[in-house]
Structures are given as C-alpha cells and as structure tokens.
Design brief:
Low-confidence stretches: none
Shape: globular
Mean pLDDT: 86
Distance between the termini: 8 Å
Number of strands: 4
Strand order of the largest sheet: 2-3-1-4
Largest sheet: 4 strands, antiparallel
Length: 263
C-alpha cells in the first residue's frame, strides 16, 4: 500500500513535486488517441497559471507530472479569477489551522467565505490571529488549498468529458492523487529520466522517442511548448547531455527509487 503521506502532503508554494494518479480500479484514462491531446489542453487551461511543468508521461491508465508550484502571491492572484465562495468544509479547516472558530450563519462570516475577502483579510480577522500565526501563514495555507483544489477541478473536468464519451458512470480517477516533494537538481533530473523511461517500462514503445504522449519529444523539438524546456536543459547542462543521460540511464531506470511512486 502507498504511504499515506503520498496522498496528504500539502502542495506548498514554490516547491517541486512529482504528481501521479491512475484510473480507478486501474481502469483506462485514455480510450482514444484524441483523449491525450484533450487531457493536455485541459491541463494547460486549469494549471498553467498555478505551476510550471517540466516533464510528463501519459501511459494509458495513469499519468505522471513533474511540476513546480508558483509563489503564494502568484497563486492567490491567479485564484481571484477562478474562485468565488469557499465551501464550509474548507473554511472551517482554514480557521482551525489558525485556532479560530466562526459561526458560519452570521452575515460577517458568510461574507468572509468569499475568496476575495480571504485573500484580503479584514482587520477584524488579523487582530484575532494567535501569536504563533500571521496573515502570511494563513495565506500560505490558503494557497495550498487553491493548488490542490484547482488540480482536483482539472481531473474532474477531464473525467466528466471521458464519462460522456464512453457512456460510463462513476469515478474515472482515484480520488486522492499521489505526490512526492522533489529536492535538488539531481533529483529533478532523475524524475525526468524516470518519466521518459516509463513508456518503455509499460511496453508502449521499444525505445526512447517512439511514444508520442510524453514530454521527451516535446523537449527535444524546436516547436513552441508550454513546458519549461530551458530549465530542464539547464539541469542536464545542455541538450546533448540530456540525450546522453537518457541513453545511459534507460537500462538502469530503477536505480533511483526515492521519487518513484508507481506501484
């Protein structure tokens, strides 16, 4: 069984993560070729304002992403156009984190559930923050929720479209996606190589470059991409080293276990 931490780790701002999710009961996520492009289009629409993407892999029944979340300030600003009223459960969790409690039935607390008002905390709230907390701590916590909730909405949007296409009901994806924090340049490189080796592992292709739905070819292409190509090549000290590292490590893809979260 996966470590529970893989499914509960907060999506902190300005942090690298390896994100992973699979089809519910190991079912397919991509039924037709066009589903891959639709997944990437939806992903860009939902997530490009919230984090940078460096690599991805889309086997038929799961997906992998290497991302870095944006700053708290950037995240909260992006959320102003995407979030309105915060649900009661989230509101309670945020205020429990700050050792505050509010009656959600009063006009002031109902007004406070506005995302805009949470980003711009009223003085009445700031004055009641406990000594060990601060507006920054509150906003950091709010940003964690925004990142996770936005990603959840992306997955729900994709799942809804596939359910309509396939005339199916129920959950397409596992409810709780998994993630690991990635530390340092070398480990980022390891995750990139692991993601690109993943298609060979699942026998979707015989060699690197033969599978169209992962970031390997997009990174090597001269075409415009939403991937952070420049940073990836900096990690590898250039495009030629990127190629060499992949070829050198493709036979030893399990040598770096730390950030592997696939069962």
């Amino acid at each position: 069984m996966p470590a529970i931490n893989d499914m509960t780790l907060p999506l902190k701002a300005e942090t690298f993560f390896h994100l992973y999710n699979r089809g519910n009961s190991n079912s397919l996520l991509f039924f037709k070729e066009k589903n891959y492009a639709y997944f990437l289009k939806k992903y860009a629409f939902y997530m490009n304002d919230y984090w940078d993407t460096f690599a991805y892999s889309l086997p038929r029944n799961h997906f992998h992403l290497l991302i870095k979340t944006k700053s708290t300030e950037e995240t909260l600003k992006a959320g102003l156009k995407d979030f309105g009223l915060i649900n009661k459960t989230t509101f309670r969790r945020l205020f429990l984190h700050l050792s505050l409690s509010y009656n959600l039935d009063t006009p002031f607390e109902l007004q406070l559930r506005s995302y805009k008002n949470l980003v711009n905390l009223p003085p009445k709230i700031e004055q009641q923050l406990p000594p060990e907390s601060s507006p920054k701590a509150f906003h950091d916590k709010l940003a964690e929720w925004v990142l996770s909730e936005r990603f959840r909405r992306f997955m729900l949007s994709y799942a809804k479209a596939i359910n309509i296409q396939e005339n199916r009901n129920g959950s397409l994806l596992q409810t709780r996606f998994r993630r690991k924090e990635v530390h340092g340049q070398q480990n980022c490189k390891n995750v990139v190589i692991y993601l690109h080796r993943n298609a060979i592992h699942h026998r979707l292709c015989a060699q690197l470059g033969d599978f169209p739905w992962y970031s390997y070819n997009s990174l090597l292409s001269n075409s415009q991409t939403l991937l952070n190509r420049e940073t990836v090549f900096q990690w590898f000290d250039g495009k030629e080293s990127f190629l060499k590292c992949h070829l050198d490590n493709v036979k030893n893809w399990r040598s770096q276990q730390l950030y592997i979260i696939e069962e």
